[in-house]
Design brief:
The chain is α+β, with helices and mostly antiparallel strands. It has 12 helices and 11 strands. The protein folds into 2 domains: 121 residues, no CATH class; 184 residues, no CATH class. The protein has a 4-stranded mixed β-sheet with strand order 1-2-4-3, sandwiched between helices. Strands 6-10-11 form a 3-stranded antiparallel β-sheet. Strands 5-9 form a two-stranded parallel sheet. The protein starts with 10 loop residues before the first helix and ends in a 7-residue tail after the last helix. The structure holds zinc ion (ZN).
Length: 308
């Protein structure tokens, strides 16, 4: 859907927190990025309405939330901050998002500008709760009583979400996963007949490809271990990463930075109905995931004008 361009002031939101508007030139990078925080306008809400989410409303950040978002933006890796400075029009928050909708990166018309819009309640979620809720939607009860739960060592959902969405903008602005035969998807994704991309055959046949994220039905809860044992032998950091090449890169980058730069260990467990541990997994230690990290570090280490 084409986004309508509209003009709106961000002065009000910034004034709440007593933050001066940054000057147009010479502003420190962090202030320049904070200036993109804006309450979503009608064009953004239109994206949600077009997706059938008619109850979505703009959310105005409290001063404390504004400070939280500014800090999260300032802590993004340098390549992410750089690309957002160039390509982010607005970062906004909405409430009333039903189901699993959490964050949306939308292109502004035919420009290379993007808007990131995030479900406001994610501001108050831990990464562990966020991932647990998202993952449990993949499974259906089968009498086994088994369930999956994440632990993320105090990490917050917002940092992860901004990393994931900013990686999409980095990817789109530089066409990282778009190019046929690109290094990021090597041996994982391959061209399919009609200009599309599909999983390599050995991955397409794996239980990792049999989730809702790839259009399959719910997974019986008792098959959680079979599914995650296959994930542990795959190049994917999460089942969501199997959805598309761009999601694969965004997931890998977000998990890597949360783990490596922020020092949070992300793990998950499968337990039986009585809470007894059946299996535990630490995706950043999966051999297939570790093999991909040098490529990500290369991307993260690229020097730029404001690298710090
Ligand atoms: Zn995504």
């Amino acid at each position: 859907m084409r986004t309508l361009i509209f003009v709106r002031t961000i002065g009000a939101a910034l004034a709440i927190a007593g933050v001066a508007l940054p000057p147009a030139h010479g502003a420190p990078p962090t202030a320049a990025l904070a200036s993109r925080i804006a309450t979503p306008g009608p064009d953004i809400l239109g994206h949600f309405e077009a997706a059938g989410m008619r109850s979505v409303r703009p959310y105005v950040l409290t001063p404390a939330e504004l400070a939280q978002v500014e800090t999260a933006l300032a802590e993004l890796p340098a390549p992410h901050r750089r690309v957002l400075q160039t390509n982010l029009r607005h970062l906004g928050f909405v409430e009333g998002v039903p189901g699993q909708g959490t964050a949306l990166t939308s292109k502004v018309g035919d420009t290379m500008q993007f808007d990131i819009t995030v479900r406001a309640s994610a501001l108050r979620e831990s990464l562990a709760d966020f991932l647990t809720t998202k993952e449990r939607r993949l499974f259906e009860a089968d009498g086994s009583g088994q369930s999956v739960s994440f632990e993320a060592d105090g990490a917050d959902a917002l940092t992860y979400l901004l990393l994931h969405e900013a990686t999409h903008i980095l990817d789109m602005s530089r066409q990282l996963t778009d190019k046929p035969g690109n290094a990021y998807g090597s041996g994982i994704w391959q061209a399919s007949g009609n200009d599309g991309v599909t999983l390599a055959p050995h991955l397409a046949a794996s239980p990792v490809a049999a989730s809702r994220f790839r259009g399959a039905g719910p997974i019986p809860a008792g098959r959680a271990r079979v599914t995650y044992d296959a994930l542990a032998n795959s190049p994917f950091v999460s089942l969501y990463a199997t959805a598309a090449p761009a999601e694969d890169l965004a997931e890998l980058m977000a998990w890597h930075v949360v783990s490596q730069h922020h020092g949070h260990k992300i793990r998950f467990t499968v337990r039986d109905a009585g809470g007894a541990l059946l299996a535990h997994y630490e995706p950043m230690q999966f051999p297939g995931v570790r093999a991909r990290l040098p490529l990500l570090d290369k991307l993260l280490d690229e020097a730029g004008p404001d690298a710090s």
